[in-house]
Amino acid sequence: xxxxxxxxxxxxxxxxxxxxxxxxxxxxxxxxxxxxxxxxxxxxxxxxxxxxxxxxxxxxxxxxxxxxxxxxxxxxxxxxxxxxxxxxxxxxxxxxxxxxxxxxxxxxxxxxxxxxxxxxxxxxxxxxxxxxxxxxxxxxxxxxxxxxxxxxxxxxxxxxxxxxxxxxxxxxxxxxxxxxxxxxxxxxxxxxxxxxxxxxxxxxxxxxxxxxxxxxxxxxxxxxxxxxxxxxxxxxxxxxxxxxxxxxxxxxxxxxxxxxxxxxxxxxxxxxxxxxxxxxxxxxxxxxxxxxxxxxxxxxxxxxx
Length: 305
Ligand SMILES: Nc1nc2c(ncn2[C@@H]2O[C@H](COP(=O)(O)OP(=O)(O)OP(=O)(O)O)[C@@H](O)[C@H]2O)c(=O)[nH]1
Ligand SMILES: [Mg+2]
Fold this sequence. Notes:
Blueprint: H1 6-14, H2 16-30, H3 37-49, H4 54-69, H5 76-88, E1 106-111, H6 118-131, E2 136-141, H7 146-159, E3 162-164, H8 171-184, E4 189-194, H9 202-218, E5 225-231, H10 236-248, E6 253-257, H11 267-275, E7 279-283, E8 291-293, H12 296-304
Parallel strand pairs: 1-4, 1-5, 2-3, 2-4, 5-6, 6-7
Antiparallel strand pairs: 7-8
Helix pairs in contact: 1-12, 2-3, 2-5, 3-4, 5-12, 6-7, 8-9, 10-11
């Protein structure tokens, strides 16, 4: 469904750097020019700079070339509309929905490297689900630092949702308690905040698998979603991280954080084409309201508005 007025403006504001740099350079490259091999080369380079990924940039170029030969497009200005339509078609409808449990609490695990935006993203999801009338419980499974628990606690207070904190250093114990609490309190959604870890740290990656196993034993079908938070400002590196996390835990979707801080919004396209994972949410700022479910139609319209 298309967003109108305020919501589209908010999305466009969040994407303003990508709009200025990426879409701005596309428009100035293509405006008023006839299509040529040279122009297509320049376009391909611009797409790669915006982090859509080399594979994708080459594919888009080939599609444009074909459309040009068939005379479906003739000038640079036609390319923008073509690109918009092409990009929108990358994401099937089924991609974006959150999988909720049919009976009992839905458990959503959130993972990612240090500082990518996990805790903030958990807060954003908590707020979204609460807005939708669901009872939310946060599990403070980042037991690495006392400050991490406190950070999540502050969000829980602001949003007005429950939180389960552990007394020790075992994240498995925290999620164990959180699952019990969710069942006892009839919570709809449990959001599990985990500690940041490098995708190269094998032992910590195993710990994630362990958290996952605890959740799976406590609640049938859980975790219903495993969201990997990627920091959009890290560009192509995010793609490499995604691949390793996918091997350790069955990632079901991406929460792409910090899209407001980058001109490389094209990373959304690269994630779809290079790791074949759906982007489910995008983060567009530091407050819990700065979140949007990812919708390709709105995303592309806002970017090119
Ligand atoms: N601009 C912007 N900043 C964000 C966004 N999401 C998170 N941040 C900021 O990124 C920084 C790190 O966010 P956290 O949520 O603490 O990240 P984390 O992954 O939980 O960090 P660790 O638990 O230390 O691994 C904070 O300063 C957040 O305010 C976003 O969508 N946009
Ligand atoms: Mg955190």
